[in-house]
Amino acid sequence: MRSTPEIEDLLRRDAPQVLGALVRRYGHFDAAEDAVQEALLAAAGQWPSAGVPGNPRGWLIRVASRRLTDALRGEEARRQREERAAALTPRDAFTASPPGERAPREDDTLSLLFLCCHPDLTPPAQIALTLRAVGGLTTAEIARAYLVPEATMAQRISRAKQKVRGVRFGRPERWEERLPSVLQTLYLIFNEGYTATSGAALQRRDLAGEAVRLTRTVHRLLPDDCEVAGLLALMLLTDARRDARSGPHGELIPLDEQDRGRWDKAAIEEGVALVTGALSRGRPGPYQLRAAIAAVHDEAPSPEATDWAEILGLYDVLVRLVPGPVERLNRAVAVAMVHGPHAGLTELEASAGELKGHRVDAVRGHLLERAGDPQAARAAYESAAAQTLSLPEQRYLMARAARLRD
After folding, report:
1. Are 25 and 102 in contact (CB under 8 A)?
2. Disordered: where is this region (predicted)?
3. 8 Å CB contact between 364 and 342
4. Closest Cα partner for 273 from 258, 292, 254, 260?
5. What is the number of alpha carbons within 13 Å of residue 171 lying toward its C-beta?
6. 3-state secondary structure of 252
7. Around Cβ 312, how many Cβ atoms within 10 Å?
8. At what angle do helices 108-116 and 4-26 cross, to 10 degrees?
């Protein structure tokens, strides 16, 4: 008999394909999701004692289909809906591998991701709906991850569902144009998990882990897409450092002070292999370039051995593709590491009008400290600390400022 954690992993892995199968057959996103949640609860209650069925995904679809058709009976025009459900549901569906059984399509998860990342939804709504429908997180879990009241998150998810009501399930026409939104949503989920924007914890490992899991799913479904491979590589290479990023009391440890022996070597090897393979197949995209930069960091045996010239070259290419504030800020750091802190400060100030937020002042403080201006550096660190909502970052920045007091 499987242990409870194994059952939970199995349920989380199968949940999006079960939901996708129901939405593909019946529509009714809201009702289908409710039915899937009931089936998951039933499985969590029965399987630990009765054992996991031979076809667990089929069991879940059969139970969820029954719950959904029961729910539809109570609605207007129930006879038509029952006839439709009966016509769409094969007799004895999803039992132990009868002849001609039609398993749920493997790309249902991808179709569900496309639905959750519909262009009519705002990025926060896309994230919330993806975590709820594809990730299998409860509304309460998502609310805790983003530090908002559960009622607020419930309303956000409900509004998102209303907006996608009636949208045809399946890969949209010109689906390649929608894929960047899917990848961006997964990237945002990962970033929030890897470095929480607010709260007492530096990281939310469950959120980062969920982003990696979902990106693995997309990579499995689209193995030849270089940007999907690049995003997965970026996540693995970045997440490989997570155990070394914080001290015993949750304090932030910057990259150049981390114990590299605590980095996950297996994740680094996998990430390097992914990005190397992707870069060899054609013109690199932004995720591949970010992953390549992460690989240079991860493969360096020490901070001093880091090839900053290569990193700067990669950022030069990246900012031409994505001239965003984060990319330009990171390039300023690379300029400083190659050409000195004054050159980095010049680069930073040249983009001062576009770069805002606590990370800009944090970088400014670091470069000013290296340039030998402790008073200005301290003011920059204090300014950065006042702007961040992350307590570990705030404590780290105030500690840097305190070291520079006369």
Report:
1. no
2. 72-105
3. no
4. 292
5. 13
6. strand
7. 18
8. 70
